Amino acid sequence: MIFAANFKMHHTRQSTTEYLDRLEALLERAEYPFKVMVFPPATALQPSREWITVGAQNAYPAEEGAYTGEIGLSQLHEFEIDTVLIGHSERRQILGEDQEFIAKKFAFYREHGFQIIYCVGEPLEVREQGFEAVAEYLWEQFDDIDIDYERLIVAYEPVWAIGTGQAAEPEAIAATHAELRRRIKRPILYGGSVNPTNIARIAEIPDVDGVLVGSASLDPEKFHALMIPVAPPQV
């Protein structure tokens, strides 16, 4: 089971360090068999911990260059980062990244051996058209993406569920993950208003290999609390 925390534009370098210190202490004490990942803002990047993989929310497909406001391979290497989010709906919809550019990012960081969490999801108007429309929309987001890449993790995040408090129904999650599983053999995460009241139910859904968590991950105690309901019994 993978638990990934996406801070988005929250936390500072100091608060991220304090967060990682606290979360690491909680994880070390519990010795959960989970893979735990944290994606802080670029200003708060730092090396991974023993129990926590630290990754970048975004990176430009170049080692360095004249790309104002971006970070590239050389900056990530400084912090020993080899994990990156690519294709998040906020990058697609708010910041205008098209599939061609997203695929270029994917190819660049695949070439450099990064672990990639690749995000896909549909807006509400597509979901309302029925499941066939959803499936077609999602598969278009895999154009020129190597779905056999060994360090690929897919995150399915219905856009209409992100930050709204309204997670997709278990049946919808199960159907969508089953559709993705037809071709994808790598782990598939669910993201979209994951919280302590629905995590156990989501974790039980077939083909859900973990969760990508936004607002519910911003406090280390609350993020850790998501793991407790799905943790194996202590012996």
UniProtKB/TrEMBL annotation:
One of its GO terms (biological process) is glycolytic process. Its main location: cytoplasm. Pathway: Carbohydrate biosynthesis; gluconeogenesis; Carbohydrate degradation; glycolysis; D-glyceraldehyde 3-phosphate from glycerone phosphate: step 1/1. GO terms for cellular component: cytosol. Its EC number is 5.3.1.1. The active site is at H88 (electrophile), E157 (proton acceptor). Involved in the gluconeogenesis. Catalyzes stereospecifically the conversion of dihydroxyacetone phosphate (DHAP) to D-glyceraldehyde-3-phosphate (G3P). PROSITE patterns: TIM_1, TIM_2. It holds the Pfam family TIM. Gene3D superfamilies: Aldolase class I. This is Triosephosphate isomerase. It catalyses: D-glyceraldehyde 3-phosphate = dihydroxyacetone phosphate. Keywords: Cytoplasm, Gluconeogenesis, Glycolysis, Isomerase. GO terms for molecular function: triose-phosphate isomerase activity. Substrate binds at N6, F7, K8, G163, S193. Belongs to the triosephosphate isomerase family. InterPro entries: Aldolase_TIM (IPR013785), TIM_sf (IPR035990), TrioseP_Isoase_bac/euk (IPR022896), Triosephosphate_isomerase (IPR000652), Triosephosphate_isomerase_AS (IPR020861). It is found in: Cytoplasm. It comes from Nitratifractor salsuginis (strain DSM 16511 / JCM 12458 / E9I37-1). Homodimer.
